[in-house]
Amino acid sequence: MNRRLLTILLVAFVIAGVCAFGVYRIVGARMSTQQQAPTTSIVAAATDLKLGTVLSQADLGVIKIAGSLPKGAVPEQQRLSLVGRGVVSEIAQGEPILDSNLAAAGSGGGLAATIPEGMRACAIKVDDVVGVSGFVTPGMRVDVLASGIPPGAPPSAGTVTTTLLQNMEVLSAGVNIQKDSEGKPVQVQVVNLLVTPEQAQTLSLASSQLRIQLVLRNPLDTKVEPVPATNTPSLFGTVKPATPVHVVRRQAPKPPAPKPYSMEIINGSATSQENFGSSEGQH
């Protein structure tokens, strides 16, 4: 074999060995650093936890995390303190259970536990049309429309439809408080909306006096703008009222007064003159 070629191969093997040794030292140092980093055991979901679930010991697992902990993470030592608390947002299996994912202690689970402080859940009775053909599911956003005849309005005003509330969150549809992952329509009779106390009063009064309809909107469209009310005549365009006809009554002209005439009367030696057709007369 050529000595020159042998020298080149030997140098190449030496360089490759040096590089491999360097990589081994670097990787080994990093692995050693990671193994030496302290870990903390925190509580995680042992299974998929749905909205409204009341936690039990079987739902709680433990995972180890190195470095800084997520905000609101619960240490393993406080694991039993989570038993009995309701889940207010879905948690996947193996995901850390944060304090913000749970309702306050003692509030239980179900729909009530998902209502934020200062808010209310207001129920609306719906049918196939009002319920947007069954596509109103928990987590959706809707507008609330009310239709009726305003009190004191003239008959020509007709039925008026106005937008009462906009961008309202649906808490539950029927008995379901879970989002439908398959997007299948479900016919329901009652829909619960998340509202303020003032909005709850408005919605309750409208439900008892007017016809309520829900309008589905894009969850990303959160813009709230004033919407003018619509009445029945406006659906047929603007109708100009007929121009009133003023009848002018003309009085018949008075007949002309008779022309006065006079008559001379001779009575013996006496002579007089009588005027006719005038209010005055001479004798």
Please tell me about this protein's structure:
Among the domains are: 73 residues, Antifreeze-like/N-acetylneuraminic acid synthase C-terminal domain (Type Iii Antifreeze Protein Isoform Hplc 12), CATH 3.90.1210.10; 118 residues, no CATH class. The protein contains 3 helices and 10 strands; from the N terminus they run H-E-E-E-E-E-E-H-E-E-H-E-E. Strands 3, 4, 5, 6, 7 and 8 form a 6-stranded antiparallel β-sheet that branches. A hairpin with a 2-residue loop joins strand 9 and strand 10. The C terminus is likely disordered.
What is the count of DSSP helices, taking H or I runs of 4+ residues? 3
- Which band does the percent of strand residues land in? 25-35%
The geometry reads as elongated
What's the helical proportion of residues? Answer: 10-25%
The radius of gyration computed from the alpha-carbon positions, rounded to a whole number of angstroms, is 47 Å
Largest sheet: 6 strands, antiparallel
Model regions low in confidence, pLDDT < 50 over at least 5 residues: 279-283
Distance between the termini: 181 Å
Task: Kindly list the characteristics that best describe this protein.
single chain; 283 residues; alpha+beta; Type Iii Antifreeze Protein Isoform Hplc 12; 18% helix; elongated
